[in-house]
Amino acid sequence: MKKAMSDFRNLLQSVPPLVVSMLFLSIVGMNLLANKSIDTGVEWLALDCGILFSWMTFLSMDILTQGYGPRAATQLSVLALGMNLLMALIFFAASRIPGVWGESFVEGSEEVLNTAMNNTFGGTWFIILGSSIAFLTSALVNNFLNYGVGRLLKGRRGFGGFAVRAYVSTFIAQFVDNLVFALLVSKIFFGWTFVQCFTCALTGAVLDVLFEVFFSPLGYGLTKNILSGREVPAAA
Fold this sequence. Notes:
Elements: H1 2-14, H2 17-33, E1 37-38, E2 47-48, H3 51-68, H4 70-96, H5 110-122, H6 125-152, H7 159-190, H8 194-228
Antiparallel strand pairs: 1-2
Helix pairs in contact: 2-3, 2-4, 3-4, 3-6, 3-7, 3-8, 4-5, 4-6, 6-7, 7-8
C-alpha cells in the first residue's frame, strides 16, 4: 500500500500540469454543459453541449496512456472523477445558498429563472450518478484499448502511431460513454427511444474523433515531451 501511494505521488509530480488541467476542466465542463440539449432539427438525433468538452477528456486520457501507461491514466481518471464529484457538491451547495443569479433579473420571471439556474448548477442525482458510471466505464475502455492498439502497432511512437491509437480508442470509448449515459439516464428519465440513444452515442463518437483529429498535433506534441523526459518506456 505504501509503495502504491508513493508511486501515485510520483506520478502526480511527473505529469505535466497542462494535461491534468485539461482532464479535470473538461470533465467538469462536460457534465455541466450536458444540461443543454442541441436542437438538431432531426427527431431521431439527440445531442447535448457536453460534446464541446468531451473530446478534451479523451485526448487527455490518450496522452496519459501513451505517456505513462493505461494503469496510470486510469488512476488519474478516477482522481479526476473524484474532483468532478467534489465540484458537483460545491455547485449543489451554491444552488442552496439564498441569493439570486445575475441572469434572473427579468421583470416578472425572477423566481422562475433563479430556480432554473439553481437546478442547473445544483445538478440531479441520477445525472451525476449516470455520468460517473459512464465516464468510469469509458475511461477503462479508452485507456486499455489505446494501450492494446499500441501493442499491435509494436510501440510506434511517431504521429501516425499516436493518431491511430487515439482515434480508435476515442471513437469506441466515446460511443460507450454516450450509450451508457443515454441508457441509464436519457431513456429512463427523459423518455428517449433506443434509436435516439444509439444515434446520440454514434454521432457523439464521430464528432469527438473529428475534434481529436484537429487537436491531435497538440496531443502528440505533449506526448512526445512526456516520453522524451522519461528514461524508461511507459509501463502497463
